[in-house]
Amino acid sequence: MDRQQVVNFGAGPSALPTSVLEKAAKGLLNYNDNGIGLVELSHRSKDFAKLNDDLESIIRTQLDVPSTHHILFTQGGGSGQFSSVVMNLLARHTLLHPDLKPEERVMDYIVTGSWSKKAYEEANRLAGGKAVANLVVDARRTSKDGKSFDNVPQPSEWKLSPAANTAFIYYCENETVDGVQFSDSSFPHHLLENSFNPPLVADYSSSFMSRPIPRIADHALIFAGAQKNIGPSGLTILIVRNDVLVDVDAAYKLGANPVPLTMAYKTLADSKSLYNTPPMFAMYVSLLVLQDIQAKGGLGPLEEVNRQKQAILYDVLEGYEEKGILKLKVQKGSRSWMNVTFEFVDKQVEKTFLESAESKGLKQLKGHRSVGGIRVSLYNAITEEQVKSLISVLHASLGA
Ligand SMILES: Cc1ncc(COP(=O)(O)O)c(C=O)c1O
């Protein structure tokens, strides 16, 4: 099949605009008329230094990142950050409160889906007898069936630890596997508005740059892999507040676990993300994607397009849910704009729909292997027209 005949609804790595990939292909062969391709340049060259600066500055402008925060680029993906967050923020907390007993030093996890669950498990692994991970809330307890991730629990259900003992509070803004998202009502920052705010950490991997980030300045750290909305895998973007850039070796002397230098946020900041060779190609494509977004008016208009895409799709799905044909997996108010999850009541109908979609070039619609059903990912590169074509196939396969 030709690229023009396909719509890629994959959950990531996912679709990128064709025009951007064409431009990237040219730069791969010959960057800025150097006669050398982008991935053949030195990462210490002037050309790449400019690219690094441009990427930083376009993210800063588009997301309105305050000057209190650094924007850093690294590798290792969201999963790498599950580990880095623990190591850096425990080091920070040890410097601030060296005398706490391990059982008093707490990492607070809000678990609303498969990815925050994984991050919580990694925190338990890496606590290493120096701290404990606290499950603030497990959203499965407030789910319809008692076992699925289908909601963001009301703040009244949350059990946050005492603020001074808390090394950080962690949440995942958009749960890619389950289709659960915070942004409808946004994170309940009012819970943290006391005299001492523990650092707030957010995994934005699958919603980064799909709309503005509410109360960005109130986050100590935001991280995201590029491979959903803005580029290829390999690039991880960090937005880090100054006070999180701590001397991990000084913390080690006070009893914290050692931190690999490539994972220490201060190392990345001190070297402007060039401590070691960065993911050059992924940074390049991400810059081109963001320039394309900027040329079309930036995050404001993009948010409106993304709002519209999910609204028309959920509307149709809710209609079929009322008729008993399918079930939306996530409760109203917690539904993701980026990953729409549902299942057909009759598995034969589901099979027919998937086959019919595939034959029309609508691909990667199967739900994550751990949860099944259907998952439609509506990242930035998916257009409203393409969502409408999916809806037509859905109507046709249901004989409507
Ligand atoms: C929300 C979220 N966090 C973390 C990850 C892990 O990312 P990576 O595969 O880049 O380690 C993913 C991957 O899909 C994700 O969707």
UniProtKB/TrEMBL annotation:
<dbReference type="InterPro" id="IPR015424">
    <property type="entry name" value="PyrdxlP-dep_Trfase"/>
</dbReference>
<protein>
    <recommendedName>
        <fullName>phosphoserine transaminase</fullName>
        <ecNumber>2.6.1.52</ecNumber>
    </recommendedName>
</protein>
<feature type="domain" description="Aminotransferase class V">
    <location>
        <begin position="6"/>
        <end position="390"/>
    </location>
</feature>
<dbReference type="Pfam" id="PF00266">
    <property type="entry name" value="Aminotran_5"/>
</dbReference>
<comment type="similarity">
    <text>Belongs to the class-V pyridoxal-phosphate-dependent aminotransferase family. SerC subfamily.</text>
</comment>
<dbReference type="GO" id="GO:0004648">
    <property type="term" value="F:O-phospho-L-serine:2-oxoglutarate aminotransferase activity"/>
</dbReference>
<dbReference type="GO" id="GO:0005737">
    <property type="term" value="C:cytoplasm"/>
</dbReference>
<comment type="pathway">
    <text>Amino-acid biosynthesis; L-serine biosynthesis; L-serine from 3-phospho-D-glycerate: step 2/3.</text>
</comment>
<keyword id="KW-0718">Serine biosynthesis</keyword>
<keyword id="KW-0663">Pyridoxal phosphate</keyword>
<dbReference type="InterPro" id="IPR000192">
    <property type="entry name" value="Aminotrans_V_dom"/>
</dbReference>
<dbReference type="InterPro" id="IPR022278">
    <property type="entry name" value="Pser_aminoTfrase"/>
</dbReference>
<keyword id="KW-0028">Amino-acid biosynthesis</keyword>
<dbReference type="GO" id="GO:0006564">
    <property type="term" value="P:L-serine biosynthetic process"/>
</dbReference>
<dbReference type="GO" id="GO:0030170">
    <property type="term" value="F:pyridoxal phosphate binding"/>
</dbReference>
<dbReference type="InterPro" id="IPR015421">
    <property type="entry name" value="PyrdxlP-dep_Trfase_major"/>
</dbReference>
<keyword id="KW-0808">Transferase</keyword>
<keyword id="KW-0032">Aminotransferase</keyword>
<dbReference type="InterPro" id="IPR015422">
    <property type="entry name" value="PyrdxlP-dep_Trfase_small"/>
</dbReference>
